[in-house]
Prior knowledge:
single chain; alpha+beta; Immunoglobulin-like; 4 domains; five-stranded mixed β-sheet; 34% strand; NAD
Amino acid sequence: MLWEFYICFLNVTLLLHLSHGQEHQGAVEVHHISAGHFFQLKCSDDDDAKDRTTVTWSRGGNQTLNTTPGVEVRGEVMWCLPTHTFHNGHYTCESEYPTGSWEMKFVLSVDPGPCPVPAENRTVSQGMSEVVFCRQQDVLSLDPTAHIRWFKDCSPVGKHGETIIEEDCPKRLRLVNATESHAGVYTCLVEFSLQGRNYTATHSTQLKVNKEKVPLKPQVTYPRKETFTVEPGSRVELVCSAFLGVGEGTESESSMFWTVDGRHTDHIEQLNVTKTTILPRSSGVYGRSTLSIYEVRPEFLNVTISCIARNAVGRDIGFLWLQPANHSGFYTCLCLCLAFSMVVLGVAMCCLFKVDLVLAYRRLLLLVSKKRAPDGKLYDAYVSYVHGDGCSKAEMSALQVLPEVLERRYGYTLFVSGRDDLPGEAIHDVTSETMRRSRRLIIILSAQSASPLHPKMEDQLPLHQSLQDRPSYDQQIGLYDALIQNGLRVVLVEIDGKVDYTSLPKSLHYIRRKLGALRWRRPSSGKSSSTASPNGHFWKCLRYHMPFKPKGALKPQPTPGINCSIELY
């Protein structure tokens, strides 16, 4: 062909030119390219490009490129936009450095034919897989959105029935199980934009397929270097997979075996190669071997266990190690979970049995505590009650029940409104002073409490106020201390059912919502009346809200029968 003769002529001319004794640094590159496509020459790829001072391009030894149409120089790069047959010839790039110069020579051979000229030759054995790359990284860096199309012998790939897979990263073709039909010229056509104009660039690879399969060394694919965690004394099966080669006779010439710490498994008890399978496939021969360890002994731990694959060409080894399982993490997590569960259970128990725990703690303190230091208080609790019209339940509870249990049995000191008042005393002054010298305020409410007034205050109200408009004075003072001065703790006790707080002061309603109330009910109908046990839930809760009674308190005394039932809600 004419273009082949021209290429030979250019090469001979270049050799004659170099043989005349002229000395040049660098190398000579010969490029076979196709007309009509973008092409670039790069002066050098060395790492000293940053130290380069000037770059000079020339053609034919001394001709500048300014007169060559379709050629643009960008520093160390020369572009052909696009290539034409008149671009054939010799090009020189000279780089100047502070320490000298570097010169590279290029030979361009532009083919006018419709199919791109191969710039690379590759050979693959029949039955093997091969990859063809699109070597246009410089072009793809100019336009990352470039589009690539693949051709084989100037036709789109895949039209000849071959198994060809296009892969995008990197830009390449993968040929699976190569056959004679895969032979040919593969071309990647890159369509891109540069400076507002569209161009194409090509790279072609001549692929040849050898009919004779070349023997290959085996390769252990798994394991390569693996570590397994095992339980000492347990049974373990280890699997090894390997590629054993290609071609006829590979099956008979290939083998797989195991060694433990350099010793063959045939010489070690508790070890047995239970199964070795040789699998011939279209892409080659593969093997799989299983090593069974009936009991993991200490001598099998932390030693090298090797899987060896061997054929007529050579061998390959895969390594693995067995290490004993470390349960410290499991036990740590277990301990943390148990500790957390115990904390949650403890908190739940404290919430559920808070009253019993506090009372038990107080009983223990009685064994070691001394007499209480004076705090200026005379009474443990001030007892006030709301007296409804025609109802004496609250009064009965204040005057009979509480003194029977709290005073006689548990030694508390109570001031009961209506019981401990002295005739002729100024109610306002006495009540205020008594409240100041009390540690708790117990307010007893009954379900029939319609009037929040103490009977003794009726005659002291203005004429325009009714009995339902004001709380008793002692309750006013106590609620003021509890809500404003935060100096007196209030305990609400409800007698016989739910109390309607709408007719009572808002301060009582607020304390009811915030602190709750203790409820004392009569026994249900049909049940015989029984004595309210001091260990019952109501009395436990009431004692919980009462202040601690140190040594010196009165010892418990028997309590007479009380016709009531106690409940906390």
